[in-house]
Amino acid sequence: MRKMRTQSAPWRAAAVLASVLLVGSVAACGNSDTGDGGTKDDGKITMGFSQVGAESGWRTANTTSIKDAATAAGIELKFDDAQQKQENQIKAIRNYIQQKVDVIAFSPVVESGWDTVLKEAKDAGIPVILTDRSVDSADKSLYKTFLGSDFVKEGRLAGEWLVEQKKTASGPVNIVELQGTTGAAPANDRKKGFAEAIATNPNLKVIASQTGDFTRAGGKQVMEQFLKANPKIDVLFAHNDDMGLGALEAITAAGKVPGKDITIITVDAVKDGMQALADGKFNFIAECSPLLGPQLMDLAKKVHAGEEVPVRIETEETTFTSEQAKEALPNRKY
Ligand code: AHR
Prior knowledge:
By secondary structure, the protein is of the alpha/beta class. It has 11 helices and 14 strands. It has helices at residues 9-28, 57-73, 86-98, 115-123, 151-165, 185-198, 216-229, 241-253, 271-278, 293-304, 322-328, and strands at 31-33, 39-41, 46-51, 76-81, 103-106, 128-131, 145-148, 173-179, 204-211, 235-238, 263-268, 284-287, 312-314, 319-320. The strands form 3 sheets. A 6-stranded parallel β-sheet has the order 4-3-5-6-7-13, with helices on both faces. Strands 9-8-10-11-12-14 form a 6-stranded mixed β-sheet, sandwiched between helices. The chain has a two-stranded antiparallel sheet with strand order 1-2. β1 (31-33) and β2 (39-41) form a beta hairpin. The longest helix has 20 residues, at 9-28. Bound molecules: alpha-L-arabinofuranose. Alpha-L-arabinofuranose (AHR) binds at residues 55-56, 58-59, 132-133, 186, 214, 240, 242, 267-268, 288. Alpha-L-arabinofuranose binds at residues 55-56, 58-59, 132-133, 186, 214, 240, 242, 267-268, 288.
């Protein structure tokens, strides 16, 4: 009778180690949650996404774009709404690290304070993609790429339009500014771009500037205060459509005609904003596209496959006057 050969102790240990490593690498590549804390291997890429919140029409369109694109790309999406709170985003990212997702993507509510959690993701070997908003980390190796708009440019385009409109003004033009969420990249950058552009005409002066947190309610409330405190307001620059739309209510309630008594410039170009522009209540919008989902899923596949991706991918955008809004509205997707 032939005897079965038994493995020696070192061989057995090596075999056990090899199978552990194999299972580990399969789990890290294309694992997904079974709902009971375990993972299954179905070959799908799993993305953990932390969204800022649901503060605006733009954000709603962005969330829809991401969810739809994940389904279309066959990527399993774990989605978390941080309700505009950085601590919620950090918690969500830590959960995704613990669940060993394949890729983490997020839109940071504010620019600062991300280094520690991004380092944790890097140490766990999970690539991070920034989308829509960026972070101010000096260490660029903490994330693979940033996909989103040039917010400084949006502010600059808004300011340049105003400079052109007011080039013959002989006296002061009083501007009030509704800023986005304090510390958020689009708030910081749009303010900067706008200020740089209007600095070319000393008649153009920002007489009041305050956050409306990117919401309609915030825009309305702050505009009411602006109107009470300042008898002469010529221009409103709102960092997004929603705050501009909230401000419309305050302006009308104060007996003024939006778009005529007060020139209104906003950013985004979501449908409600475009309608206000077409109706002559807004005067100019710098576009900020929320349709980032398909590009984000493409990038996720590439970074998961270990491919090089550009460190910065800028979204293509335009601007709209009232006439252009009338033309664009019937085909507007968001
Ligand atoms: O980060 C993009 C900005 O966030 C949009 O302009 C604004 O509407 C949103 O809340």
